[in-house]
Amino acid sequence: MSFEIVAKSLSQIGITLALILIAFGIVEAVIFLVYNKVLKAGDKALTGMLLAPAVIGLFLLIVIPLIYELVLSFSNMNLHHFKDPSFGITYFFDNIKRVFTTKILKKMTFWPLLFQTVLWTAIQVTFHVVLGLMLALILNSKIRFKELYKGILILPWAMPPVISGLTWRGEFHSEYGFFNIILRRLFGDAAAIPWMTDGFWNFVAMNITNIWMGVPFMMVICLGALQGVPSEYYEAAAMDGAGKGTRLFQITIPLIKPVLAPSVMLGIIWTFNNFNVPYFINQFMLETSDILVTALYRAAFTYNQYGFAAAFALVIFFILFGISIIYMKKTGALKAVGD
């Protein structure tokens, strides 16, 4: 029976992929004909054909869902009004008001969730940058087996997030997890930590997991930037008697800032919206270790408040948009990329 289900699923996937390929083939043929027959610009046909899949994908996966979410925020759609929702500006303002004034979860309101999310983001980005830069500085120095160390250190980032999240959740198991086994052997049964049942320790477990997963990315970025810094600057600074700290803060960091600043901005966005780690470590068992995006998921798919969740998503978007604008103005992140 299970084999038949798998075979049927694979056949359905194959049919879907075939239809997608046929549709793309038709689109590419139309673009080719338009460039050659209508626009008389056959030399640009290849450019249009190569851009078409990306443009169509962005439109289908980003533009249409964003428009649908915006429309949904003007409704009272929920489980009771799923087939016959009402739309109007009053529903939009009511949904926005509810985000800030009512309980989003059973116990948690918006402001504690926002504080938790900001704290989560600040901890993660700080550790990612500091540890990533430290490892990059070590790997950029003259040490043996450098390539081996690079390969080992990049593994956490290369692993699929699902596998990493589930693996770390197992390590935090109260009875069979690695950490509690070590703590029990060293200090007795009383030293075991309730990683999965205590909100504070669950939040700590989330941070440990995401730091392990995110540091290698920042390490690679910093290492690439460090390798572009001319060694002559360090030689001149050493001749002038500058110490390691002076060289780091007066030469290294200013020169890698054009690369580091946009990477930190991306880190803020990714961490703020990180759903995988909180989901796999918490699995919706504790509200006190939720962040905004996991609370949004619960509002939509646990409590079935679809119109409210759409408005909540817009609030999260504008918060993150505001943080990004402020950060870019303060650091000149996009200017650094343009230069």
Automatic annotation (TrEMBL):
Q: Does the UniProt entry include the keyword Disulfide bond? A: no
Name the Pfam families on file.
BPD_transp_1 (PF00528)
- What does the UniProt entry say about where the protein is found? Cell membrane
Write down the membrane topology: Multi-pass membrane protein
| Lipid metabolism is among the record's keywords | no
Domain ABC transmembrane type-1, residue spans: 114-327
Query: Which keywords has UniProt assigned to this entry?
Result: Cell membrane, Membrane, Transmembrane, Transmembrane helix, Transport
| Biological process, per Gene Ontology | transmembrane transport
Q: Please report which protein family the annotation says this sequence is part of.
A: Belongs to the binding-protein-dependent transport system permease family.
Q: What is this protein called?
A: Sugar ABC transporter permease
